[in-house]
Amino acid sequence: MLIPEATIQKIREEADLVQIIGEFVKLEKKGNNYLGLCPFHQDNNPSLTVSPTKKIYTCFSCGAKGNVFTFLQNFNNISFVEAVKYVGEKSGIAVNIATYYSKTQYYEKYYKILETATKFYEFFLKNSAEGKKALDYLHKRNLNDEIIKRFRIGLAPKENDLLYKSLLQEKHQPLDMIEAGVVRSYRDSYFDIFKNRIVFPLEDIDGHIVGFSGRLYTKIANEPKYVNTSENKIFKKGKLLYNFFRNINEIRLQDEIYVFEGFLDVIAAYRVGINNAVAIMGTALTEDQIQAISKATKNIIICYDGDTAGIEATKRAIRLLTGSGFNVRAVLMPEDLDPDDYLNRYGANKLKELLENSESGIEYLYKVAKIKLNYEDLVSVEAFKTEIFQYLKAFNSFVLTEKFLQKLSEDLQVSVDSLKADFGRIDYRPLPKTKTPRRLIKWESSETKFLKSEKELVRRSYQDKKFCLELYKDLDSHYVEFKNFCLLGKIYDYYQINDIINHDEFLKNLKEEEKKLLEDIINSKEAIYQDLPTAVLIKTVKQYEIIKKYEIEKEAIKENLNGENLKKFAELRKETLFHKE
User: Fold this and answer.
1) How many angstroms separate the CA atoms of 8 and 3, rounded?
2) pLDDT value at 565 more than 60
3) Which run of H or of E encompasses 48?
4) Greatest CA separation found in the chain?
5) Domain spanning 108-235, CATH architecture
6) Is 205 helix (H, G, I), strand (E, B) or coil?
7) What is the pLDDT of residue 104?
8) Cα torsion for 337, 342, 346, 347, to the nearest 10°?
9) In Å, how far are 75, 236, 240, 486, 520 from 495, measured between CA atoms?
10) Is the pLDDT of residue 233 over 90?
């Protein structure tokens, strides 16, 4: 079902463009219009003009322009219908987004489960005897009630199935609970994965709770200190930036972002008054995370743990981010500590001082390389020199090269000329490319027919509005690969307000990887798939979901194939085999 064009126009006409944009940008009245700093580029002099009569905004520096919907889409990175819903609510016009396309629609049942679980954990922390002990522990860790509320910290009870029963009362299905990563099954029983732990909700870039980290607050033999949600349909560590959604306006305002390893470090930064901070949850920076950050700022301060692993991760991040066009600074944490431990040991003033006195990326690299230097060992001296040469080659700056060759000359007590001679002879060795894990290669090769069927459906949708609108109803949010699903959604959004696609105009709404994906799909030479009937392609895409469901259920009940579980397993396997025919 489409949002009626009349409804879209009514919302656009009745929306207070100045008020809505003014929620994100400080505007000042100038004649009939309003001026402000453009949020879509680094703007020092107000270049964004908002016209309340024409209902449009224009930036005369970077060229950004559009209406109230496009502003919200670009600023908040949301879909067209989500923007319509937001503006409709502000204008007093209800739009039930559940009946329309949304990139989150398919995952809505998981988001609801995790939101319900979060509320359950929050309530149990504040209203139980176990919760009192956990609160005492948190208070001793200097996490006060305001911090507990802001970061939605909760407690999972000792009892195995209280969460399961609570979710069941809310009409959630056991299999969905398992897929959402909050419950496991064992011998016809269900238990809370995070039981007897203080629970920290983890949000994705769009602000949805997608998982948890559970920490022990009492000693339990043979139990790890932390238990985290395992990778699943919605919990992808490489796509998480803890606290990004909550802090994005502060990041834009400061035009700077602190990147930590763990969520407790972000909370530590908040405790000392730093709100433009995120955490990568212990993973290496990914392309998805870098792209999200780039929409908010190009200035990054890396503050990983002070141990060897943290230092090596910082070195990789500096090289990667500098090569991606960011201005990178870094903080070297002393004594192998992480920021949270440093705060608890030395206090708020010391941590804030440390974080606010970051150094440039090349200065950080020089400092940590020098730690290993033994002036009496010529092998050590040569290794130190070669490492610094590699960094200077990577930064590719005559000014930095001259400055640090001079610094190197002073530290090693050798002439600058001899260093320049050696520097001219050294070969630049780029970082090795990341290899695709073998298990992923194997899985991708087994998906070929599903992916090609899905891409053919996207290709046909791009060429035909009627086909696209009908396909959306038929697919009912089934997909093989999420990036294809998102691209189809953007095509659908475009057809909501246009009869045909203007290719150049449409490309402006896509990220670089989406543009490449679209070009690959449009130029596909898969004649076999282009000749297949639409019904066959749709059936193939839906078949993929059945097979994945079978694999998840098999994993969940593999430890006990008796009674009801055996029957359910057999039925699901039969259904899967039928769909494979």
Assistant:
1) 7
2) no
3) strand 48-51
4) 81
5) Alpha-Beta Complex (3.90)
6) coil
7) 52
8) 180
9) 21, 30, 30, 14, 21
10) no
Whole-number Å distance between alpha carbons of 266 and 263: 5
User: Given this model, what pLDDT does residue 576 score?
Assistant: 47
239 beta partners: none
pTM, full prediction: 0.61
Q: In what order do the strands lie in the sheet with 154-156?
A: 154-156, 197-203, 209-215, 226-228
> What is the DSSP code string of 94-163?
---GGGS--TTTTTHHHHHHHHHHHHHHHHHHHSSHHHHHHHHHHHHTT--HHHHHHTT-EEE-SSTTHH
Domain map (residue ranges) of the chain: 5-99, 108-235, 239-366, 372-425, 445-580
Nearest to 272 by CA among 198, 200, 344, 360: 344
Distances (CA, A) of 421 to 405, 418, 428: 11, 5, 15
Helix axis angle for 482-497 and 465-475, nearest 10°, is 130
User: Distance of CA 531 to CAs 488, 535, 537, Å?
Assistant: 20, 12, 10
In this chain, the answer to whether the domains covering 5-99 and 108-235 adopt an identical fold is no
- For residue range 246-291, what is the model confidence (pLDDT) as tens digits? 888 788 878 899 999 999 999 999 999 999 999 998 778 888 888 8
Per-residue pLDDT band at 99 (split at 50, 70, 90): very low
CATH class for the domain made up of 5-99: alpha beta
Whole-angstrom CA distances from 283 to 127, 236, 289, 442 are: 35, 11, 11, 23
Q: What percent of the chain has pLDDT over 70?
A: 86
**Residues contacting residue 296 through CB under 8 Å, at least 6 positions apart:** 248, 251, 252, 257
Instruction: Kindly state the tokens that stand for 247.
Output: 């802090």
Task: Give per-residue pLDDT as tens, 488-547.
Answer: 888 987 888 888 888 888 888 888 888 889 988 888 766 567 767 888 888 888 877 666
According to the model, what pLDDT value does residue 499 have?
82
- Top CATH class of 239-366 equals alpha beta
Mean per-residue pLDDT of the chain = 84
Reported as a single tens digit per residue, the pLDDT across 356-374 is 999 999 999 999 999 989 9
d(CA 542, CA 106): 13
Neighbouring C-alpha atoms within 13 Å toward the C-beta of 19: 7
Helix axes 378-395, 361-371, angle to 10 degrees: 170
- List of residues 6+ apart from 159 with CB closer than 8 A: 195
